[in-house]
Amino acid sequence: MTAGGLARRGFGDASRAVRLMGECGLDAARHAAVVDALGAAPDPDQALLGLVRLLETGSEAAELLEALTADPDLRARLAGVLGASVALTDHLVRHPGDWRELRGADAARTPTAEELRAGLLHIVGADPHAAAPVAAPECDDPEGPEHALRVAYHRRVLRLAGRDLTGAADLETVGAELADLAAAVLEAALAIARSRAPAEAALCRLAVIGMGKCGGRELNYVSDVDVVFVAEPAEGVEDDQAAQRAAARLAAEMMRIPAETDSEGTLWQVDAALRPEGRNGPLVRPLSGHVAYYQRWAKTWEFQALLKARPVAGDPELGAAYLAEIEPLVWKAASRPNFVDDVQAMRRRVVAHIPAAEAEREIKLGRGGLRDIEFSVQLLQLVHGRSDPALRSGNTLEALAALSGGGYVGREDAGGLADAYRFLRRVEHLLQLSRLRRTHLLPDPAGADGPDQLRRLGRALGFTANPVTDLMAAWRRVAGEVRRLHEKLFYRPLLHAVARLPDSEARLTLEQAGERLSALGFADSAGALRHLEALTSGLSRRAAIQRTLLPVMLEWFADAPDPDAGLLGFRQVSEALGGTPWYLRLLRDDVRVAERMAWLLGTSRYVTELLLRAPESVAVLADDADLAARPVAALMAEADAALRRHDSAENAVAAVRALRRRELLRTAVADLLDVAPVDAVGEALTDISAVTIEAALRAASDVVAAQRGEELCTRLCVVAMGRFGGRELSYASDADVLFVHEPLPGADPVAATETAGALVRELRRLLEMPAVDPPLRLDADLRPEGKSGAMVRTLDSYAAYYRRWSSPWESQALLRAFPIAGDPGVGARFTALVDPLRYPEGGVDERAVREIRTLKARMEAERLPRGADPALHTKLGRGGLSDVEWVAQLLQLRHAARVPALRTTGTLKALDAAVDHGLLDPDDGAVLETAWRLAARVRGAVMLVRGRPSDSVPTSLRDQTTLAGALGYREEDDEGPAGQLLQDYRQATRRARAVMERVFYDD
């Protein structure tokens, strides 16, 4: 075969390959299949050199070549081993006949743990069926039983590598077999130790507990084997201390054997540093000593390590007893103070201690490496596993599958972590196979041998086109995905919440729930129990996630003013969303959403009703940015799209009203969560109402035009009044408006007015038609002549009326006039018309001031509802909204003509302008603003809490407590939440009333 042909097969030094093949008798034609197998190896040049070394060992060369030619499985296994591992090649050269370990049925079969144990015990001459196997005094191997054990171990590793490198064994099989093989070595080493110290062996029972990857049956090719020793006196031995000393000597001898070096090299170190007190503690302890230590002194990381504890050698009954005593302590560890924080801090410390030069190549400890996956899985196990035995596995992939199956981790996230784990462990195995040395570092691309090592690694992983480039790209991609998922799962706030629950409450059962519900403050524990049963019963993934969430959420429902309403609302929303996949995933992965949802549903009937009408809106709870009021332009664009999307005006306006419902929910949630101040709430409610009216007016215009069969002969403008014009709407406010129209040039005035009337009627019909969405009622009572006057007037009619009949109260009302929908030109001309009335030159005269004051006094006397407490009526009560607003409006009527800053429709802006221009004392302005904000908040909160409007602070203690909770008052307040709210409200309004009487009445 030519050098070019070999180069095409992947050989790096093709000329050298041609020479080597000639020297060893490898014929290109006769042994083409062998050459092809070598070319497919991770490193073809290394594989060829290894084969040449084997063939040079002597008499078996012809048999080996013949076997390779005839047996494709042998070819693939041997080429893979030779091309991936210099260390196993060296073993084959030392033991030329061991290539047969890769041939036949046994080479393809996965041995059992017992088979491995019996085989290695047989090697050292011990009886595998004995209760405490002892190695034979004599050994067939002239170099002794330790050497025989190492040779046998490497033969087993060789056989496993052959299956691994050809894809016949997956990662889980490889890790489990290596762990079982390590356990067998420990058993054989202990048998040797017993043979050399029979007196000590007679004094004690010794169990070897595997920890780390050995305990989890996911061992690497080369890794320290972590162990813990537990010992008890043998039957009939009364001297406990002598038994412990004997066990310590046996344990030390056992540890020495795998770690010694001879012509076979070193197998691995046995590391007992995970024992109680670490390297400073005694090597061996009795069972009671272990239990006492873990009960009193163990740190958080020690329980994390114990998660993988498994008896692997020595006395099986003692090992089982150890596990039975220790396991309950492990699964209670998450209840320790700061448990989650401790685990997270430990992971950060590990990352911080990685040398900077190695951080980007560290596949085990570095960011995005194996430790990120393992710590994430272990933390989730320890937190949730105390109440769910299905999670109690020491094996990472098994535990990850159980976490996914139980709904603790999303399927996609679990699949991503599992794939990444397999990739990283595969890389780790291939790195270690090369020289059977412990390493977790990717080769340095800038190092002398780095590119060659990376090329071999990449080819072994299947990257044959561009091995180095593709390998590094895959590593960066996997590390980035692992880091993303690690941050998501490892720092999941739900872990803190679940860890804080008492052990008995971590996973709620219906038997336990009744008592707890009453203790948490649920008034109807039987009803709440029915809700819990409906949410958590069954075997579905949804029920599994609910069983995890609800024990925590019950605490949050209990923190809300009405826990029973909260749980009922949660059940209703959950059932409405049905099998929607993102809903429970959102609650599980973003605990803030679940906490907020519990509190909102237990606080606000208004929010609950809106959520039930659009349960998908729960997604806005995830991010404060989603709770910010949307720009008017964005709302208008969405409303425009709804108008275009629907054929009928009814359906189009229904879609716009659904948009309003969603924005009402967004605003209410932002209000209750204190994300938006009260003035921002008013502006948001005003904007969505204005957009809704504008869209409905356009739809109404199309309907009226279609009915009349012609274009409309007039232009209509909707002018906002009252709180609507002041951009201070509340949840229960009607939209106070005036309807102004202006006939088109040449149009018949009567026909134009008739058309405008039809347009207004259609507009109101569309806005108030029955639907699940809150209606938007238009109130035109502030029009000229009030309810007895025409609903809609021309601009000229308004001008004539105001010229002849306008009274001071109308000038005052017009301070809030602001065009919000319809023809902007008509709105601008209406504004120009009313500006002289509301901002009169020279200010209002004293007669008008007296009339305004008289009207205010009459309102207080006549319009305050019968039986209402004037001190607690937010609108008309002493120091309430009306007091503050009338002060601001009187200042505007008096001074706005000469102070342009006062020409605003907003109360707070008017007060600020008055302060800025010396018309109102700053302290008085602050008092008025405080009272207005508090009264507006209380008024809005009453609607949010009760789901129906009221202008008065509730009189019942229960309702006052609920209201106070919605406003952020908590039980720790000295007066109690209701008492503190009433105290604050009375104090603020009393001060505001004093300012009002002094400023408004010149008193």
TrEMBL record:
Gene3D superfamilies attached to this UniProt entry: Beta Polymerase, domain 2, Nucleotidyltransferases domain 2
Gene Ontology MF term list: [glutamate-ammonia-ligase] adenylyltransferase activity; [glutamine synthetase]-adenylyl-L-tyrosine phosphorylase activity; ATP binding; ligase activity; magnesium ion binding
CDD domains from the UniProt entry: NT_GlnE_GlnD_like
Protein name in the entry: Bifunctional glutamine synthetase adenylyltransferase/adenylyl-removing enzyme
Enzyme's top EC category: transferase
Cofactors named for this entry: Mg(2+)
Entry's family note: Belongs to the GlnE family.
Region span, Adenylyl removase: 1-494
Gene name per UniProt: glnE
GO biological process: regulation of glutamine family amino acid metabolic process
Alphabetized UniProt keyword annotations: ATP-binding, Ligase, Magnesium, Multifunctional enzyme, Nucleotide-binding, Nucleotidyltransferase, Transferase
Function: Involved in the regulation of glutamine synthetase GlnA, a key enzyme in the process to assimilate ammonia. When cellular nitrogen levels are high, the C-terminal adenylyl transferase (AT) inactivates GlnA by covalent transfer of an adenylyl group from ATP to specific tyrosine residue of GlnA, thus reducing its activity. Conversely, when nitrogen levels are low, the N-terminal adenylyl removase (AR) activates GlnA by removing the adenylyl group by phosphorolysis, increasing its activity.
